[in-house]
Amino acid sequence: MSTELLFRDDAYAKSGSARVIAVDERGIELDRTIFYPMGGGQQGDTGALVRANGERIAIVDTRKGDTMDSVRHVAEPSAPLPKPGETLALELDWPRRYALMRLHTALHVMSCVVVAPVTGGNIAPDKARLDFDIDMSLLDAGKIERETNALIARGIETETVWITDQELDARPELVKTMSVQPPRGGGRVRLLRIPGIDLQPCGGTHVRNIAEIGAIRVLKIRSEGRRNRRVEIALAG
Ligand SMILES: [Zn+2]
Question: Which pTM value belongs to this model?
């Protein structure tokens, strides 16, 4: 069963309501959701689903389901489980998600400062990283930090753009991340555009204006193998 993914059009939706369409030990499926399921290196959302009687179901993770656009809201093991058909209020852990959005968008900016193929990445609420296929001698923490922060300070609005699978096939240079192929199968692919800085396929959640990132600092750079030079960042403030 598929779920309407409200975060795709509005990453700033912090609350809402939805109807339960299925429940099993792996999670709760809703007809629509503001919870982002883990994917593209970004961790799944947490928060709560609230029943009409006020009972709260703590959501400790969100994962993709078995079919396209299906989402499993993973409840705390001791939480009460709702019934199909029930209407629930959705409450996101917004400070955590907003940190993920700021760090995620920061990685887009940093990927244009370090010009090399991306071999991996991860976004957690407190830190994020990209792995590059690049020579260690070309990675300078101070320079990456300065140049990324200079781009962030330009305060550019981000845009979501959709193209067809065929258009993406015709422009393979758009895919920087070798380890994560853009989600396909729906006939169209979502791109994030930061005009003048970055354009690449991405299904994640981003801030509206890169100024919201504030500034980043490089926590460390280390080698995780010949094709994995890892640059780890955090929000500076
Ligand atoms: Zn993204």
Answer: 0.93
